[in-house]
Amino acid sequence: MLIAAADPLAFNFYTFITTIVVCLVVVVVLGLVVWPKILKGLDERDAKILHEIESAEAARASAMAKQKEFEHKLAAALEESDRMLREARAAAIRLGDEIRAKNESELADRARRAGEEIENARRTAVAELEAHASSLAIAIAGHILEREIAPADQKRLVEQSLAAMNTPNR
Amino acid sequence: MSLFLANSSDPVSHIVDKPIGNWRLFDVDIMLSMVTVLGSAIVLVLLLIYAAKGSKTGQASLGNRRYLPAGKFSALVEVIVVYLRDEMLIPVMGARLAARYLSYLLSLFFFILILNIVGLIPFVDVHYAIYHFTGLMPFDNVPESKTAALFGGAATASISVTAALAVISFFVVQVQGFRELGIGGWLEHLCGGRELVRGSIFLWLVIPIIFLVELGGIFVKPAALAIRLFANMVAGHTLLLTLLGFGAVALNADLGFFAVSGITLVSGVGAILITFLEVFVAVLQAFIFMFLTAVFISLMAHEEHEEGHEGEGAHGENHGHPTAAAHS
């Protein structure tokens, strides 16, 4: 069964007017009720995201600054500890030198005193030995001469003997 | 079955807007597209109110989750709104104009979209199927020139509907022109712009030609909007119904069970594939209508727009691009 071909370009004024009215009502209703809410929600979300990003960036900048400050302090502390170590090492070396010098001085002093004591003892011993030797020589000489040697003679003889002994060419 | 057989003879008759039975209001036939436009508008408003409810920032007790859309439908609407606003309208119109016309352009897009989508759902055929199986019919002796369906059909396949939408866009564009340019600026715009009107006297010779072209363009632009949407919808539905009609033609020709089954199967698969294409076309045509309206609005603020963005380089190119496309 063939039917009469319909005209798709047929214009209906009432449909036209109805569509205009309905479309305008839709635009007004959506413009009052829907889009402000959706756009406000989107704007609030954008603002929230922006705020969160800014907060995160501020926190990151703050953390970076703190890290730099910490690194600076750490470097200063390391430098301070190095300086303290150097000073301690220098002080230890200086103290060691002082102790060693003091010890050496004391040792030299003791050696000098010991030398002097030895020299004194040697002199005393030599003097005693000389005295004893002279006494013994006089006693021997007395026996040989068979007479008593008076103390004045003894003294004179000793001095002569010592002088003779101290004479280098003898 | 008679409907399909009729379609096989003239699928366009299935698309063309028809009066509903014997419904009349103030002595005027109630057309199917009138009811569809009204019903779709109500559904659209209800759906978007629901979406807006979910998009609103929630109670503080929800914590940070109050900023999230409540539900997938709200999220879908938000995605579309954000894309159209940030990726399409603001780059084309600038932030100030986009903010001013955002409400209208979004409403226009969703209104055309729901009309296109409703047109893809075979409500009319569902009506006839129900009448056929239940034996219930709201009207007696409905002639072929009328329909017994109460809702459905492709409203945007009616030139009356698309013309109405284009006329609204026409007035919005012209009102924008008067607001931005004033009467003198608007006339200057029609005569080729300030440079031409205030330029050399020899250039004035071309002003009448430009005036006629621009004056024609004022009406051609909305006419193109209306015809583009109408033609795309009619073509898509005609193709779809032609494919579906192959089976009916085969049955009518008494080709035998296997031939009829084969033809019906192949044409049915083809119709399903074309339906997917039509869903895409429905969205695309809604977008094009809205986008071109935005371009026409921005053209009416063209001179100020250009001056405001002199020397902005790439940004200026972004503005020029769609405008040039619209001219072409």
State the main characteristics.
heterodimer; A: 170 residues; mainly alpha; B: mainly alpha; two-stranded antiparallel ribbon; disordered N terminus; disordered C terminus
Low-confidence stretches of chain B: 1-6, 304-328
Number of strands of chain A: 0
H and E order of chain A: HH
Number of helices of chain B: 12
Rg of Cα set of chain A: 64 Å
> Gyration radius of chain B, to the nearest Å?
24 Å
Sequence of strands across the biggest β-sheet of chain B: 1-2
Mean pLDDT of chain A: 86
Contiguous low-pLDDT stretches of chain A (5 residues minimum) are none
- How many domains of chain B? 1
Share of helix of chain A, binned:
over 70%
Walk me through this protein's architecture:
- The complex is a heterodimer of chains A (170) and B (328).
- Helix content of chain A is 88%, strand content 0%.
- Chain A is mostly helical.
- In chain A, α1 packs across α2.
- Chain B has 328 residues and is mainly alpha-helical.
- Chain B has one domain.
- Chain B contains twelve helices and two strands, in the order ααββαααααααααα.
Record the SSE blueprint.
The complex is a heterodimer of chains A (170) and B (328).
Chain A: H1 13-145, H2 151-166
Chain B: H1 2-9, H2 12-15, E1 19-25, E2 28-31, H3 32-55, H4 72-93, H5 95-120, H6 123-134, H7 159-190, H8 194-197, H9 207-252, H10 257-299, H11 302-308, H12 314-327
Antiparallel strand pairs in B: 1-2
